[in-house]
Amino acid sequence: MWLIVIKEDNNIERGGEKTKMNNFAVKTTNLVKVFGNVVAVDELNLEIPFGQTYGLLGPNGAGKTTTVRMLNAIIRPTAGTATVGGFDIITQSRDVKMICGFLPESPGLYQKLTAKEFLEFIGELYYLPEDRIASRVNELLDIFDLEGRENDLLEGYSRGMKQKVCLCAALIQDPKIIFLDEPTSNLDPAAARMVKDLISVLAKKADKTIFICTHLLDAAEELCDKIGIIDKGALKVQGKPKEIIESQSAKDLEDAYLKIIGATHIDDLLAWRDEKNMNNHIPKKKKQKK
């Protein structure tokens, strides 16, 4: 087991060695990811301080999930560099994974394991001691209201319950940096509220750095210290929610978001119906008899 201790002087003590960290939990420099002819992420530059909750917003296919997968050392960038917790995502990928918790948008579960067995397995992947695994599993099952079902197979869980188990897995090693890709997906309103409150507590009281990808603009405005809006792989704007709203002379974050990405309002999207109706009312010329 490699002991990792975060020091106040931004040194990481690892196996008796010290590695100097930069002042950012996440720092990217001209980060690029290309799939064939598609530029999924285009020269992305981020600087996210420790302890900040950062939200990355954008439409489907904007590059949010690709960005998070690169930052968690799951896929390699095509060009550019990035550090997470002071570790390089390419040359120190193992260290990155050891200090991060990650909830993917479409998480995978071993359906033939119980919730308890699955979380114990995840804890062992992080080389946690057995007694710590046991205490954290019980604590997380209690927080997410899964007690009484911990010995049921995951294949019998609802989608919302599976999402809760995946959240437990992302938190079990008490990560310093937490990546959440659509964390309230499939959750009922009460569970979603609980997750939002948990994110707030982790950021404010547990000094966690949280990186959220979400389509829920109200959640981003409520939870995030700073947000970035990405479209077609390019970062369009970033700043505090209030600053972004004011910069666009918008009434709220949703209005600002629509202006930034150039989304068309519903009236414009339905304009074809009016055109169709108008065409139907144009009298047809009668064919002349020969």
Q: Can you put this structure into words, describing what you see?
A:
The chain is an alpha/beta fold and 290 residues long. It has a domain of 195 residues: P-loop containing nucleotide triphosphate hydrolases (Rossmann fold, 3-Layer(aba) Sandwich). It contains 11 helices and 13 strands. The strands form 3 sheets. It has a 6-stranded mixed beta sheet with strand order 9-10-11-6-12-13, sandwiched between helices. A 4-stranded antiparallel beta sheet has the order 5-4-7-8, covered by helices on one side. Helix 3 packs across helix 4 and helix 8 packs across helix 9. The longest helix is centred in the C-terminal third of the chain and has 16 residues. The chain is globular. 35% of the residues are buried. The N terminus is likely disordered.
Note the main attributes of this structure.
37% helix, 290 residues, Rossmann fold, six-stranded mixed β-sheet
Architecture of the domain at 51-73 and 92-263, CATH level 2? 3-Layer(aba) Sandwich
Helix content: 25-40%
Helix and strand run:
EEEEEEHEEHEHHHEHEHEEHHHH
The assigned structural class equals: alpha/beta
Number of strands: 13
Within the largest sheet, what's the order of strands? 9-10-11-6-12-13
User: What is the distance, rounded to the nearest whole angstrom, between the alpha carbons of the first and last residues?
Assistant: 95 Å
Average pLDDT rating? 84
Question: Low-confidence runs (pLDDT<50, min 5 residues)?
Answer: 1-21
- Gyration radius (Cα, Å) is 23 Å
CATH topology of the domain at 51-73 and 92-263: Rossmann fold
Strand content is 25-35%
CATH class of the domain at 51-73 and 92-263: Alpha Beta
Task: Please describe the biggest sheet, giving its number of strands, its sense, and whether it closes into a barrel.
Answer: 6 strands, mixed
Number of helices: 11
Morphology call? globular
- For CATH, the homologous superfamily of the domain at 51-73 and 92-263 is named as P-loop containing nucleotide triphosphate hydrolases
